[in-house]
Design a protein that fits this description.
By secondary structure, the protein is of the alpha/beta class. It has one domain. Helix content is 52%, strand content 11%. It contains 16 helices and ten strands. The strands form three sheets. A four-stranded parallel beta sheet has the order 2-1-3-4, with helices on both faces. The protein is globular. 47% of the residues are buried.
């Protein structure tokens, strides 16, 4: 008996290559070059300082010819490349709990599997760990693990929490004293380079110039249509200034280039470039609280694109500095301005301050409402988010909604669940609009 011939499975359509604008490609090249500098460190003799994004002291680090390495950025890169899932599982095999921040587990797992960076080359061991503590207790425990792994010097700059919503002179002086008595002497010892405050002033001057252009880009979202997406696109925009490039000529050039690109889109009445193409049909303007999911970054962004939802402001794009509220690094007050920078980052702000910020964004950017992406493993962002959501909704009269994913653990991204919640939220927005229109007609 002749056996029936098996039909070949239909070929899956190829996934179209993600579209990127020129500034995204430029940022990607900058990051690639930085990872090459890190990988070359054992051969060049350069020393490496591992630190974190919120409150990082890149200008000070550069004064000692140290290369900045950011563990959470390494985890993000692993997530975008879909390698973090295996790293997280490896860390859990070592005994790390399900509840531990997945940035930490990705980093620990990456070290266990050879510590290969996103460029396919081995990451160097740090010569010093510099923790500018800014509100996230997990960073403390993370650095304890790294110190145990690398047996290198560890420096901590403690940042007082803004519990009362203001920065006092005592807070600043407390931090300046730490810089003078602990941080700078230790960096001199590790690097063998004598501290030069005029060198620091020059880096701070360059930081302020780049910060001006970044703020102009962020505030461009007040236009309709918005020429940027301040959440997904914002991830690209903040990369250089929140990490290893703040205080450099490269940062100045990048943000001049980015600003020019955005201003050109404004002049043409164009929306942001997304992986699916330019976003012209902007039906919803949102403010987003919380980090994105990186393991399904493009799929997540596409859900917003498909609904015509553009993010005009986000809290996550302020974790490395709240420049849009007026802060600039000040070369005339070099140590004081470093302290004020650390004090003002988003993770060091109290819940009432975060509510104020989100309400201000909804008003300034004429947003339709607030969307919170709650991260399963990030207590720093997730604590109090339901209270934040209810208070913002009460104060602005705009609808708010809550979705849940994770940073770099693919097990906690449910496309169907996220899509359903987004669709329900946009229905809420439409109902709110209809109610407002009826009231206007009745009046």
């Amino acid at each position: 008996m002749t056996q029936p011939t098996a039909r070949p499975s239909p070929a899956k359509p190829p996934i179209a290559e993600a579209e990127k604008d020129a500034s995204m490609l430029k940022q990607k090249a900058m990051m690639a070059a930085h990872y090459d500098r890190l990988a070359d460190a054992p051969e060049t003799g350069a020393k490496v300082c591992s630190t974190f994004v919120p409150g990082n002291l890149n200008e000070l680090v550069m004064c000692f010819d140290l290369i900045n390495n950011l563990p959470e950025v390494n985890a993000i890169q692993s997530g975008l490349r879909r390698k973090s899932g295996a790293y997280v599982l490896e860390a859990e095999k070592q005994g790390h709990s399900d509840d531990v921040c997945t940035y930490v587990k990705s980093d620990i797992g990456m070290m266990a599997k050879g510590n290969i960076g996103p460029n396919g080359r081995k990451m160097p061991d740090p010569d010093v760990l510099l923790l500018s503590y800014t509100g996230c207790f997990t960073f403390l425990k993370w650095f304890e693990l790294l110190r145990e792994q690398y047996k290198c010097p560890t420096i901590m700059l403690h940042t007082p929490y803004q519990g009362d919503g203001k920065i006092t002179p005592n807070m600043v002086q407390y931090m300046v004293r730490q810089l003078k008595e602990s941080v700078i002497p230790k960096l001199e010892e590790v690097s063998g380079v004598k501290f030069d405050i005029d060198r620091l002033r020059e880096y701070l001057k360059k930081s302020a110039e780049a910060e001006d252009d970044l703020v102009a880009v962020l505030k461009s979202a007040r236009h309709k249509p918005s020429p940027i997406d301040a959440f997904f696109g914002g991830i690209y925009y903040i990369g250089p200034i929140f990490g290893a490039f703040r205080g450099t000529d490269d940062a100045i050039q990048y943000y001049q280039f980015l600003r020019s690109e955005v201003e050109e889109r404004i002049a043409k009445g164009e929306g942001p470039v997304t992986p699916e193409g330019p976003m012209q049909d902007q039906r919803y303007r949102l403010v987003v609280e919380g980090p994105p999911n990186y393991t399904s970054f493009r799929q997540f962004w596409k859900m917003f694109y498909d609904e015509g939802a553009v993010v005009v402001a986000s809290s996550y794009s302020k974790v490395g500095g709240t420049y849009d509220f007026g802060f600039r690094h000040d070369p005339d007050r070099p140590l004081e301005t470093l302290a004020e920078y650390c004090l003002g980052v988003y993770t060091n702000r109290s819940l009432p301050m975060r509510v104020d910020m989100l309400c201000d964004y909804i008003e300034e950017y004429e947003a339709d409402g607030l969307l919170i992406n709650s991260i399963k493993s990030c207590n720093s962002f997730s604590a109090g988010q339901l209270l934040i959501m209810r208070e913002v909704e009460r104060r602005t009269g705009k609808p708010a909604a809550f979705i849940e994913t994770d940073l770099v653990d693919p097990r906690y991204f449910s496309p169907a669940n996220v899509k359903n919640r987004l669709e329900s939220y946009f229905q809420m927005v439409e109902q709110k609009r209809s109610g407002t229109r009826r009231k206007e007609v009745a009046a």
